[in-house]
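Key result, reporting period 2: structure in, sequence out.
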């Protein structure tokens, strides 16, 4: 079974939806570990509750980002991790991880990229007055939310929408779309590794 890691920095509702999908076997892969960079993040308790090993890597404990990512990479290799799903991981992935996991790292972003990249995408959409925004799952490259798009789903922005109400709608879409998209991607990854 394919082994993957989730990287997260915050609440971890997407992490929860992914591990729930593995428990239901809608996602037939093993979430073998959680990488987190924030000691107080709620996602840590979610992982512990489900007996998923958690590894905390704080950038400030390393001389630079290359060393930081090398330490993460060693952990991923130790666990035979084949794929990485970023779920609210608030850091750009650097060359060390990108080179080792080329086309094997995806991210979920709360807008229809290329609109509203970067931080506060939901707030940006409300401020821009768009009537439709959404969710994007994309491969990671060296840019900020610029990698090739894998899946998207639109979310309507109603009149009088607030950041909070829109966030709730976006999260509801994310929690279905991310596990489904990972299932499709993992199937392709599995087929590729058995066809050689
Ligand atoms: C999600 O909205 C995701 O699109 C963005 O960060 C948020 C993470 O939320 N990248 P959660 O921690 O999964 O609840």
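The corresponding designed sequence is given below.
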């Amino acid at each position: 079974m394919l082994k993957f890691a989730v990287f997260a920095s915050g609440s971890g509702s997407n992490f929860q939806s992914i591990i729930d999908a593995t428990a239901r076997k809608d996602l037939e892969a093993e979430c073998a570990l959680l990488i987190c960079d924030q000691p107080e993040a709620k996602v840590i308790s979610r992982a512990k509750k489900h007996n998923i090993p958690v590894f905390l890597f704080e950038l400030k404990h390393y001389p630079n980002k290359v060393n930081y990512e090398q330490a993460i990479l060693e952990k991923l290799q130790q666990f035979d991790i084949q794929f990485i799903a970023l779920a609210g991981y608030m850091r750009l992935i650097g060359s060390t991880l990108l080179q080792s996991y080329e086309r094997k790292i995806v991210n979920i972003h709360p807008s229809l990229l290329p609109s509203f990249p970067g931080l506060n995408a939901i707030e940006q959409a409300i401020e821009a007055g768009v009537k439709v925004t959404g969710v994007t799952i994309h491969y990671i490259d060296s840019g900020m939310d610029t990698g090739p798009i894998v899946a998207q789903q639109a979310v309507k922005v109603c009149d009088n929408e607030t950041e909070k109400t829109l966030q709730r709608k976006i999260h509801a879409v994310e929690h279905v779309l991310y596990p489904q998209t990972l299932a499709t991607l993992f199937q392709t990854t599995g087929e590729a590794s058995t066809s050689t």
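The first helix runs from residue 13 to 24. The radius of gyration is 16 Å. This case is discussed further under Risks and Mitigation.
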